[in-house]
Write a structure and sequence with these properties.
Elements (H helix, E strand, L loop, with lengths): L1 E4 L2 E4 L9 E7 L3 E4 L3 E3 L1 E6 L4 E3 L5 E4 L5 E3 L4 E4 L3 E9 L2 E10 L3 E7 L14 E6 L8 E2 L1
Parallel strand pairs: 4-12
Antiparallel strand pairs: 1-2, 3-6, 5-10, 6-7, 8-11, 9-10, 11-12, 13-14, 14-15
Length: 144
């Protein structure tokens, strides 16, 4: 690059290097999951040129207590015990973390039977609702 004013000029060299990873954003943040369930985390790299890149498969994933929550190399966490852990993602010297809580037996579905019954005016219909939890325990039938 050269700059000139009249007969006076000067020149210099500009070296442009690759963008530098400045931070990592983990998603989801401060999540909650059930014992026996899995949750996928992702890592996004934020670079010095304002660009972003999916780093989920490139970072090293960690759990502060692998007896409560294990996490594999692709960011898939599995709740093993009840409690709260810190999930970390690191690439080189850049790292980030978030909290993850494993709750007791979250309800994942409710089945009501019978489905779409037909009754006449003035009649009554008994229904049964069965709740299913992520930690294989079902809620006993409830008549409504």
């Amino acid at each position: 690059m050269t700059a000139s004013v009249g007969a006076v000029s000067g020149s210099g060299t500009l070296n442009v290097g690759p963008a530098v990873l400045q931070s990592i954003t983990i998603s989801p943040q401060n999540a909650t999951m059930g014992k026996g369930t899995s949750l996928q985390f992702s890592a996004t790299g934020n670079y010095s040129d304002s660009s972003t890149q999916d780093l989920t498969a490139l970072v090293t994933w960690t759990s502060s207590d692998s007896t409560e929550v294990s996490i594999n190399s692709t960011g898939l966490a599995t709740g093993r015990q009840f409690g709260t852990v810190t999930i970390g993602a690191a690439l080189g010297s850049v790292n980030s973390s978030t909290g993850l809580t494993v709750n007791k037996n979250p309800l994942v579905s409710i089945v009501v039977t019978p489905v779409n019954p037909t009754i006449s005016v003035g009649q009554t219909q008994q229904f049964t609702a069965i709740g299913t939890y992520s930690d294989p325990v079902s809620l006993p039938s409830t008549t409504v």
